[in-house]
Design goal:
By secondary structure, the chain is of the alpha/beta class. Helix content is about 45%, strand content about 20%. The chain folds into 2 domains: about 1-135, Rossmann fold, CATH 3.40.50.620; about 140-295, HUPs (Rossmann fold, 3-Layer(aba) Sandwich), CATH 3.40.50.
Amino acid sequence: MSMRKIVHASDLSDRAGRAGRRAVQLAEAHDAELESVYVIESDAPALRALSGSPDNEGVFQAAVEQQLQASTPGHKANPRVLIGDTVGELVYAADHGGADLLVMGAQGQQYVRDWLLGTTAEQLVSHARTPTLVVRRDSDAAYRRVAVAVDFSACSRAALRAARRWFGDAELHVVHVVDNAELDRMQAAGIGGSYIYQQQGRLMEEARAEAEAFLREEGLSPEAVSLEVHAGYPASTLLEALGSLGADLVVLGNHGRGRWASVLLGSVAARLLREASGDLLLVREDAPIAADAGTA
């Protein structure tokens, strides 16, 4: 299933430009409609300064639309300027505008906390039903290596489907982390190391079998996919594994119902948002792509 419409969230910054270039690349690859959206907060000082104009909102919208059109990479996107609450307008534009993907930018690693974990972006990731791509790298080349983090939940199933259907030409890696928290508690209680070692081996075997079954359910042969099963603290271990892979796109389920349910958009997703070197695609269980039960 190809993308039909992409919404690019712009604030006319350099980071939005990077996201825009990625949005253009994806739109061209999928022959998709591309819309670049800028939201003017209804209480913005500049908007209030035009209160003497008979059509103050229209004047400001026209001025910003001109800037948006000039800044859109390749002038490929349809500019759209909205007035209202930033999060609400962007979520509505994506979810109710028929978008398959919402693309937004991250600045540099040192600024990710402000942009991604700040009010606007965190709420976008939390509330948008539309899969959200957070762009870290400036590139207009197609993704070549895609890693999907799975915990066997419905949303990680949706993430895997999105990766296969949208980036089918890329090298696909599937990563699962076995949480060692229970084994750590055993060790703290004084249980012998040999028993803990045996239990970890058992958990790893069970996790690999479950991962292979998960892939087969999605029509993928485990032998045809690079599957990695690791053990440790999910956030740290996943970051280490992804770093070793050198993936330029990481796909992650959002609002999981599996083993990471309590920490998704907590330690796992938050640390990926802060520290992953590549772009990050977050896919919710109720994303439109999840409703299509077929496989690529």
